[in-house]
Amino acid sequence: MKRIALLGAKGQLGSDIHRVLQENSQFEIIPVTRDMLDVENTETIIPILEKLGRIDVLINCTAFHNTEQCEADPLKALRINSIAVLRMATYCKQNSTLFIHFSTDYVFDGSKQAPYTEEDRVSPLNAYGSSKAAGEEAIAAYLDTYFVFRVSSLFGEAGASGKGGNFVETMIRLSKQGKPISVVQDVIMSPTHTQDVAETVRVFLEKEITDYGVYHCSGEGACSWYELAVQTFAFCGITCETIPIMNSAYAAKVRRPLYSVLDNNKLNRIYPMRSWQSALEQYLQRKGYVVIHGGEME
User: Fold this and answer.
1) ∠ at Cα 80 (146, 101), nearest 5°?
2) Residue 56, SS3?
3) Quick one: which of 82, 62, 74 has its CA closest to 11?
4) Closest CA to 217 of 286, 146, 276
5) Which element (helix H / strand E) includes 4?
6) How far is CA 58 from the centre of its chain?
7) Shortest CA distance to 88 belongs to which of 26, 16, 127, 143?
8) What element of type H or E holds 227?
9) What is the C-alpha to C-alpha distance for residues 259 and 105, in angstroms, rounded to an integer?
10) CA 33, 38, 44: angle at the middle one, nearest 5?
11) What are the angstrom distances between the C-alpha of 204 and each of 1, 101, 140?
């Protein structure tokens, strides 16, 4: 039986990973929540992990991912997204533990204008992306047996505590106010359902994949935030005036890549990712926004 320690087990991504991995009776999941381990206190990470006993796999779903807060407090971003990750990698090295970690499309600057592969050079534009890139480097420097999954624009049933939910939920909430909604149309990315990321982790562990390294793990395809909002309203049957605007219309405090689509070809050979539209549809069904009758969506 694999003993799997799951850090951030109650978060948007961690809760889905917890639920999916529990379906395999050969996995013993040890959920580690913030009240058990505050990863910002980096010196406590290894001692607390050692108290858990034998760990075959360490999955890290913790992160400081509010981009504006990261910009305002880059040292905190560095502690959580880089130094804490280094401590985890050190623990895994000392205990021959497989490390699974999650990074972001924000390690890229968006200048490529074509889907990014794992071989493309990172060039983050902001403190969040820089801290996540540094975390990736720390893992690669310390470990041979690791998986880093770069994800993008996550949406999951639990919502992101640091962001007050997720984009899909925000759009549905705003639509109920009966006012036009302005949404950016020139920022292009790959929306990703946390359920699909969780299934990817399950497959890698069940198949005991040994082709270690970095994988892109995002919804297949690409869209703008505007297109994501419009598709959400279409699936839900919501009538809402949605106005496309340019990113430059916002007085943004953080520089973000205008194009951060991830190329999943490497991952698709092991576990094919589905389209972001299909993933969104399933998410909306699971949340009860869309009801299925007789095999047809309503």
Assistant:
1) 20
2) coil
3) 62
4) 276
5) strand 2-7
6) 16
7) 143
8) helix 225-236
9) 9
10) 115
11) 15, 13, 19
| Angle between helix 276-286 and helix 194-206 axes, rounded to 10 deg | 110
- Hey, what are 81's tokens? 């997204």
CA pair distance 267, 216, nearest whole angstrom: 7
Rounded Cα distance, 139 and 291, in Å: 43
C-alpha span between 228 and 153 (Å, rounded): 11
Tens of pLDDT, residue by residue, the chain (298 residues): 899 999 999 999 999 999 999 999 999 999 999 889 999 999 999 999 999 999 999 999 999 988 999 999 999 999 999 999 999 999 999 999 999 999 999 999 999 989 999 999 999 999 999 999 999 999 999 999 999 999 999 998 876 544 557 889 989 989 888 889 999 899 999 999 999 999 999 999 999 999 999 999 999 999 999 999 999 999 988 888 999 988 877 767 788 999 999 999 999 999 999 999 999 999 999 888 876 544 444 4
Q: Which amino acid is at 199?
A: E
Distances (CA, A) of 287 to 156, 174, 260, 291: 9, 17, 27, 10
Closest among 167, 165, 200, 202 to 183, alpha carbons compared: 167
Q: What is the DSSP letter of 80?
A: I
Q: What's the token pair of residue 38?
A: 């505050």
Helix then strand count (H, E) for the chain reads 11, 14
